[in-house]
Write a structure and sequence with these properties.
about 220 residues, Arc Repressor Mutant, subunit A, 2 domains, mainly alpha
């Protein structure tokens, strides 16, 4: 990615008391057109962005596209980045989640308009398709959760982060994260209650699609 070296100079240094972490410094350098800083941000954050997208979409090619688009948006936002207001990882995760959600919504529209043919006679085909239906239904409902619940749930179950790390990324207490996760799971259970038998969810809900109650 080529950077525009004609961009304005870096912003004035933040006032005393504003904390700048390494990512903040890299964003400031990106705003000045520093390609090395952009490469460092990619090395730090692209693998996690891709993993989150893959967890939500279950498609490696789509996940790569989403991660690349999210990184592009991060670079474009560099000139407006305010140190201390957010963490780069959390900001990027939200962009990834929103881009993935857009793709999930498009999939739902396409699926409704043109239902796929179901193969006959293939060993295990029905079980495999039932599993895909469960995963698709869960992901669609996760996409509709309030933003903070969705972010916490995807960080926990798709990125497989522990609650303390989620709390650090979201700038919340561990107790607040646990509350978000509990509310998200209750919300999913309510929304999918009518479809439990249909989707094979009699034994609980797993946002990753495994049909079991997730741990915290």
């Amino acid at each position: 990615m080529a950077f525009d070296t004609a961009r304005p100079a870096l912003r004035e240094a933040p006032c005393v008391g504003t904390r700048m972490n390494d990512d903040d410094h890299l964003m400031a350098r990106c705003a000045a057109g520093d390609a090395a800083a952009a490469s460092e941000l990619i090395a730090r954050h692209a693998p996690r962005a891709t993993a989150v997208a893959r967890g939500m979409l279950s498609d490696a090619a789509e996940a790569e596209d989403v991660a690349q688009e999210a990184m592009l948006r991060l670079w474009r936002h560099a000139g407006r980045w305010r140190p201390g207001e957010a963490q780069v990882g959390t900001w990027l995760h939200r962009v990834v989640a929103n881009l993935a959600i857009d793709r999930l919504r498009r999939r739902r529209r396409w699926s409704a308009e043109d239902p796929p043919e179901r193969p006959d006679g293939a060993p295990g085909a029905e079980a495999r398709l039932a599993g895909e239906d469960r995963a698709a239904a869960l992901r669609a409902e996760i996409a509709a959760l309030p933003e903070r619940q969705r972010v916490a749930l995807t960080l926990r179950h798709f990125s497989e982060l522990p609650n303390p790390e989620i709390a650090a990324r979201m700038d919340l207490s561990v107790e607040a994260v646990e509350s978000l996760l509990a509310r998200a799971r209750r919300g999913l259970a309510r929304k999918l209650e009518a479809r439990r038998a249909d989707l094979g969810l009699e034994h609980g809900l797993d946002p990753a699609g495994a049909g079991r109650e997730p741990g915290t």
